Input
Amino acid sequence: MRSVTINPAKICQPIGAMYALFGVHAAVPLVHGSQGCSAYPMRMFNRHFGEAVQVAVSSLGEDASVFGGKKNLVESIKNVIARRHPELIGVITTCLSETIGDDIDGIISEGNYEDSKVVPIHTPSYVGSHVTGYDNALKALVTTLSEESEPANAKLNILPGMVNPGDVMEIKQMLDPMNISYTILSDISETLNAPLILPKPPFPRGGSSVAELEDWAKARGVIALCEHAGGSAAVYLKGKYGMAADTICPIGVSNTDRFLDAVCDMTGAEIPYSLEQGRGRLIDAMVDVHMKTCGKRAAIFCLEIRNARRLLRMRTLHS
Ligand code: SF4
Output
């Protein structure tokens, strides 16, 4: 018997943090590290999603490695604000900036950033993987931006985890007929699947807005779809604000039932007929073909070969 996990796709933390920031409207990931820490991931995102994602970098060199990267970080934040006027800059640390010990929280707190919010995100890549980086980024966004204030709202917070744009769209298609207010963090359904409409806006439409994130502490409940990618933010909201929290991934009939039950419990909404109808059709299809599928086993290989090669190349560069 042999494990089928060969060369698992375990890549570095900053990539996960970039992925999280692409789902926030008008946000720019700023990698505080050497140029390679942003160039290779950016190219991978561009090619995988076919979207012109942009990542800024503080370009640490030999001098910064010895004397510290404060000057580079301050200059790069100024440049990003002057050129792109973002609503949010996520400063993502790397192996280098964490090892030299730059106090990015202190450096960021000294600045004045006009209308942009600047959030420090710690992602040392010698710990964890891209999944840890995604989780750390969401927790940093929630802890830095969300503010408790009255009145509370009737919204639901959803943390979908490291899924594809189509998965986020599917979640929205389930929630929209229920007539509830919700915010998804991070919402890549449009930002990484943008329609080609000219002229192109400076930032893709869609994504969760900074104003929505500031309201996160006021929501009725939070549901994380993955414990490891978004779960920490849900635990933080539950511990700090006493918010109702659950972790359920709506894959399969019983888990989707549990997910919708949790949504109803937290918001007081009712399951609409359109969802009952879709569920009924699926059960009917399963009954209709059970004589062909019963007892059969299937293996699913999920990683595209093209991407597997690219991931392996990145791993080789750092080994
Ligand atoms: S693993 Fe490589 S690309 Fe990732 S943060 Fe560390 S040095 Fe940069």
In short: The CA atoms of residues 36 and 59 lie 9 Å apart.
